[in-house]
Design goal:
This protein has three domains: about 80 residues, Arc Repressor Mutant, subunit A, CATH 1.10.10.10; about 100 residues, D-Maltodextrin-Binding Protein, domain 2, CATH 3.40.190.10; about 100 residues, Periplasmic binding protein-like II (D-Maltodextrin-Binding Protein, domain 2). The termini are far apart. With about 300 residues, it is α/β, with parallel strands linked by helices. Pfam families: HTH_1, LysR_substrate.
Length: about 300
């Protein structure tokens, strides 16, 4: 391998190793780096060959770091962290302290966008970019933090708990009135609007029924990949969808959607604010993060 001033191997090998060591998974590292697991394995083998040592203990179900691997990972993690802080400072100076927050389209429409309007009234000089997508926020260095249900696969990212929601079926007022007090078997026979989640942490209809003790067949007649679309279809009488009760309070209070009792499920996981450590955030980003947490505590969602 060619050498440079610092006598380092190619940075691509170090980057692949750091991601694999952080996840203890070649597959998850490949997803983060947008390459194949084979490419990650090739880079790590090249690094091990260059260093003439084994960095990972390959096991049937994953990998562990060797002593040399652990030492290299700790050095890279600390170094990449310092580099990240410098880059953040430079970006903040160039962007005027802009903050970028991510969420799903439903979280943005039902809570975050109105919350940001309230934030701007208190801190009008803070520029906030809002990024919405219904896929996981993987490998997005442009995002300061994002709101998600369940824990992110990257366990190195700080998770700030926000709240735990409650899952209950909802429908148009006409359908909800017809099904009030319906059994789980009756609900399962209705047209259910299923979510095609890319993130496995989200609760599906079959999981909801299973948690409540129903083991019958759950037909899949309608599937969408956007929670906002699912809510819109339910409002128009196209079927039942699972409702995050706290998140969808605006729709429930307006009467556009009505919950169908008595069956409900406390969500197994929490909603979290996930992102870079506080010491790597700009002052504006820390201010917005603190404000969002306070909003939740005050009951805005």
């Amino acid at each position: 391998m060619s050498r440079r001033h610092y006598n380092l191997p190619p940075l691509t090998t170090l980057s692949a190793f750091e991601a694999a060591a952080r996840h203890l998974s070649f597959k998850n590292a490949a997803e983060e780096l947008s390459v194949t697991p084979g490419a990650v394995s090739h880079q790590i083998k090249a690094l091990e060959s260059d260093l003439d040592t084994t960095l990972f203990q390959r096991k049937h179900r994953g990998v562990d770091l060797t002593e040399d691997g652990q030492a290299l990972y700790e050095a890279l993690s600390a170094s990449f962290g310092r580099i990240s802080k410098v880059l953040t400072t430079i970006r903040d100076r160039k962007s005027g302290g802009k903050v970028t927050v991510g969420s799903t389209t439903a979280v943005a429409a039902l809570w975050l966008s109105p919350a940001l309007i309230r934030f701007w009234r208190e801190m009008p000089n803070v520029n906030v970019d809002q990024l919405t997508q219904d896929q996981p926020f993987r490998n997005r260095p442009d995002v300061d933090f994002f709101i998600r249900y369940g824990r992110e696969a990257d366990t190195s990212l700080p998770h700030t708990p926000l709240y735990r929601d409650y899952l209950i079926p909802v429908a148009s007022p006409e359908i909800a009135a017809r099904l009030e007090g319906a059994s789980l078997e009756m609900l399962a026979s209705e047209r259910l609007i299923h979510m095609a989640w890319e993130d496995p942490s989200w609760i599906t209809w079959p999981e909801w029924f299973q948690h409540l003790g129903y083991t019958g067949t759950i037909p899949v007649e309608s599937r969408v990949n956007s929670y906002s679309v699912a809510l819109q279809l339910a409002r128009k009488g196209a079927g039942l969808t699972l409702c995050w009760k706290r998140l969808t309070q605006p729709l429930l209070q307006s009467g556009k959607l009505v919950t169908i009792g008595p069956h409900g499920l406390t969500a197994p996981s929490l909603f979290y604010l996930v992102g870079r450590p506080d010491e790597e955030l700009s002052g504006n980003a820390r201010a917005l993060k603190t404000w969002i947490v306070q909003e939740v505590q005050d009951g805005s969602v």
